[in-house]
Inverse folding.
DNA sequence: CACAAGATGAATTCAGCG
DNA sequence: CGCTGAATTCATCTTGTG
């Protein structure tokens, strides 16, 4: 075993995280089962029409490590009737007016679509905006400014939308490849999304900031235009994306990219395509052939007749990693590691439920860590990682993850294992005794023998690598069983 | 040795349709 | 339901090159 076990966190540090054992046990009692339970509760509240922001505040104000749903609901009602918090509906209307739609237009939209259907009202407003103006070409910036957007915000949005706006989900990238100038509706959408992100960001801000926000009048909104390029920015815009030039052939009708794979097309293919297009650009057969190649290899147009594969840094952005997260290893390895990784934003979305539940941080058991997608997501959510036990067989990936850990000045402990098979029940129980248990077990087991592109050994779950799925199950079961024994022990103590 | 390039299909999914 | 056809796929191995 090459486990690298650093010294345990020293007790004397003057940080705001309390490391004493009682606390760890308290945290642990909010076990994964309770998280699931809480998740459902939150979902129910959202169904009832409360905003995430409001629910977060209610959970916080109700207090206690694991408040009863009814108590939270009571706080929610209290909050929603208080004079400070207007109803979510009028809040949205205010927001729409704040976005620059005239009051007249908003009222018109409400009359036409009824008060209830906020989504349709928003859509209607966007189409009004389109009808009222041609909004194409150079006038768009002025139009946006007239609508009330700060100049900088508007020009960033225009720039981003004219490139390609991309929403990435787990390994699949859906993108808007219109290749034309973005319509005003798209740009407004973009700004709206950025504003939503900003609100979410405020909601997920550090606990002390949240407290300040509740007790004091709301601070001035932070502007989008600061620190755009900084690596760890709190306010994250949708990724500035691929598609650098404006050249996009009309016969390439793609509206999305395929799955990010571990191999990419050769530079030779780009040259071949260029040469073919220079000669036979109008030949439908050639066009079809080229589009097929583009689909197969996820090629994007980066210049006239030039279709090229994604660069490693572009994949990093698509997958939600910090810039140059995989720097320092060969191009080939970067593609391989990135092609096998989580989509960070998606993982962060799911893990965000942990944020209000574990203000003091969590202990993570990370299996098949890879380049650390789960940890990057937790870091982005500003959920402190008191402990990460990481299992990753690839040395290249372990190095990448370790540099992330060091570069982000993590204060928790990192314990590395190489192979899941090393991690037997005895080791798991020892770690859980030492650290008070795990709050999160996360990992994606190998897909090699399941992957469609594997022609050689697609042997299913029983395959050499993919069978490690069963080790995941074994470890999860060991953690659960130990956790329930620890709970019993604590109860009778 | 690293690595770029090229060769290597089939299982699975899904929309559309009767 | 089942059928059909099209689209898609967290990849592996050999060979040539430097």
């Amino acid at each position: 075993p090459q486990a690298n076990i650093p010294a345990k966190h020293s007790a004397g540090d003057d940080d705001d995280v309390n490391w004493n054992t009682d606390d760890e046990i308290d945290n642990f009692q909010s076990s994964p089962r309770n998280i699931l339970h809480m998740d459902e509760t939150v979902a129910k509240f959202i169904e009832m029409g409360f905003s995430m922001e409001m629910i977060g505040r209610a959970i916080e104000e109700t207090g206690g490590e694991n408040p009863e749903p009814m108590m939270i609901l009571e706080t929610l009602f209290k909050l929603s009737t208080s004079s400070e918090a207007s109803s979510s509906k009028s809040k949205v209307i205010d927001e729409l007016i704040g976005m620059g739609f005239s009051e007249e237009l908003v009222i018109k939209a409400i009359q036409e679509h009824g008060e209830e259907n906020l989504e349709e009202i928003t859509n209607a407003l966007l189409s009004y905006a389109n009808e009222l103006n041609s909004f194409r070409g150079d006038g768009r910036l002025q139009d946006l400014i007239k609508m009330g957007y700060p100049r900088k915000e508007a020009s960033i949005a225009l720039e981003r939308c004219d490139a390609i706006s991309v929403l990435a989900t787990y390994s699949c990238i859906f993108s808007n490849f219109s290749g034309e100038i973005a319509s005003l509706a798209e740009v407004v959408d973009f700004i709206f999304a950025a504003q939503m992100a900003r609100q979410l960001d405020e909601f997920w801000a550090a606990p002390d900031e949240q407290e300040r926000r509740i007790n004091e009048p709301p601070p001035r909104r932070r502007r989008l235009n600061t620190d755009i390029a900084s690596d760890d920015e709190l306010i994250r815009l949708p990724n500035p994306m691929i598609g650098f030039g404006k050249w996009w052939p009309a016969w390439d009708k793609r509206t999305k990219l395929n799955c990010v794979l571990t191999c990419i097309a050769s530079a030779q293919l780009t040259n071949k395509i260029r040469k073919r297009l220079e000669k036979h650009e109008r030949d439908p057969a050639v066009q079809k052939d080229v589009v097929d190649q583009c689909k197969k290899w996820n090629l994007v147009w980066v210049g006239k007749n030039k279709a090229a594969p994604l660069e490693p840094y572009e994949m990093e952005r698509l997958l939600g990693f910090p810039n140059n997260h995989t720097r320092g290893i060969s191009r080939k390895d970067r593609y391989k590691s990135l092609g096998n990784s989580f989509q960070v934003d998606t993982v962060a979305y799911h893990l965000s439920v942990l944020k209000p539940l574990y203000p003091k941080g969590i202990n993570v058991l990370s299996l098949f860590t890879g380049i650390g997608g789960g940890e990057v997501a937790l870091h982005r959510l500003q959920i402190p990682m008191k402990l990460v036990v990481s299992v990753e067989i690839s040395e290249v990936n372990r190095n990448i993850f370790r540099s992330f850990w060091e570069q982000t000045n993590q204060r928790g402990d990192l314990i590395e294992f190489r192979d899941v098979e090393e991690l037997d029940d005895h080791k798991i129980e020892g770690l859980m005794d030492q650290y008070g248990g795990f709050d999160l077990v996360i990992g994606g087991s190998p897909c090699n023998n399941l992957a469609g592109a594997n022609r050689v050994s697609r042997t299913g779950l029983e395959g050499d690598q993919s069978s490690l799925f069963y080790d995941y199950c074994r470890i999860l079961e060991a953690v659960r069983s130990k956790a329930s024994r620890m709970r019993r022990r604590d109860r009778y103590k």
